[in-house]
Write a structure and sequence with these properties.
The chain has 2 helices and 25 strands.
């Protein structure tokens, strides 16, 4: 008998060719399930504030982590317009330095876009396993984590500590990447050809987008296998209110691959450079699976009554392979 040890079960198999084959398949399936556990759970990316918050390096159980510190009365804001929404977690730690208390109760406020702030309160106690780098005598509280589900159309998170609060707080904000993003960080990728580029500024950070046109001149050439992320924005005028529905057809080497239905609203924090009266929508993304080999992608608007600008991304580890 051959005894195969699996963490949660013991499996006994006779030593015959057929049963050895069955055992191999069984073990491969189990290991595949184990290996995919982290993929199913996704991965967390730490976000950096666009404004506010003092960057601090905390040593947590021997590992260095980046947090952002707010004093009472201070605010920080994070741009999430290109993160596709989903699950966010906010890890907090109160600074108990200068206090001899064995417990702390601290509060902070969070707002999504222009929604009303919500007040959160957390209780914690000091831990010896956390301190600022080089300051082992620090008294910093154990972490308390808040998880939020935020829609894709949201553009920014604001975190504030009331001026009447007693304690400074360290914050670490993270976003769980969706299925397509979990194995890689996406980086900007320029198209092969285009007719017009526009600059869109979000909180004073300018990004280049490329306009769709009827002449099919916007093309992206990619070497697969990989995943192409396409970030889209509709160009609106002041008369366009409410939710805007639109679709983008994607062609692979001249053959229709997929049509992606999208929905958005006007952005509250982004502007188009040198085009007064034109308002960009919030960014909406879709993903194109690129098979092995070199492929050219083009895009059209089936309804053909919107002005749409696109911006492209691919996984960072594939950038050199797909560079023009």
């Amino acid at each position: 008998m051959v005894k195969i040890l699996i963490p949660w079960c013991n499996y006994m198999i006779d030593r015959t060719p057929l049963n050895r084959l069955i055992a191999s398949i069984f073990v491969a399936l189990i290991l595949s399930m184990i290996g995919n556990t982290s993929a199913i759970a996704g991965r967390w990316n730490t976000l950096e504030p666009d404004s506010g918050g003092d960057r601090v390096r905390l040593v947590v159980s021997g590992n260095t982590r980046t947090y952002y510190r707010l004093e009472p009365g201070e605010t920080m804001s994070l741009d999430i317009s290109e993160t596709d929404g989903g699950k966010y977690r906010i890890i907090t730690r109160a600074d108990m330095s200068g206090h001899d208390r064995n417990e702390v109760v601290y509060t902070f406020r969070i707002a999504i876009d222009n929604e009303e702030e919500r007040l959160y309160s957390r209780a914690s106690e000091p831990t010896r396993s956390v301190h600022r780098r080089g300051l082992e005598e620090d008294r910093i509280a154990q972490s308390r984590t808040l998880e939020l589900e935020i829609p894709a159309e949201a553009e920014y998170i604001t975190i504030r500590i009331g001026s009447s609060s007693n304690d400074a707080v360290y914050f670490r904000v993270q976003h769980e990447q969706e299925e397509y993003s979990e194995s890689a960080d996406y980086v900007f990728y320029s198209p092969r050809s285009y007719s017009q580029a526009v600059g869109i500024s979000t909180r004073e950070r300018v990004s280049t987008y490329y306009m769709l046109d009827d002449a099919d001149r916007l093309n992206v050439e990619v070497i697969g296998p990989t995943t192409l992320k396409v970030l889209t924005r509709v160009l609106l005028d002041e008369s366009m209110r409410g939710r805007i529905n639109y679709s983008i057809a994607t062609y692979e080497d001249g053959v229709l691959k997929n049509t992606f239905p999208l929905s958005t609203i006007a952005s509250q924090i982004s502007v188009i450079l040198d085009q007064p009266g034109v308002i960009p929508s919030r960014g909406e993304s879709f993903y194109v699976e690129v098979p092995a080999g070199r492929h050219r992608y083009s895009f059209t608007l089936p309804e053909n009554h919107r002005q749409v600008a696109l911006r492209f991304f691919i996984p960072e580890q594939h950038l050199t392979r797909s560079s023009h």
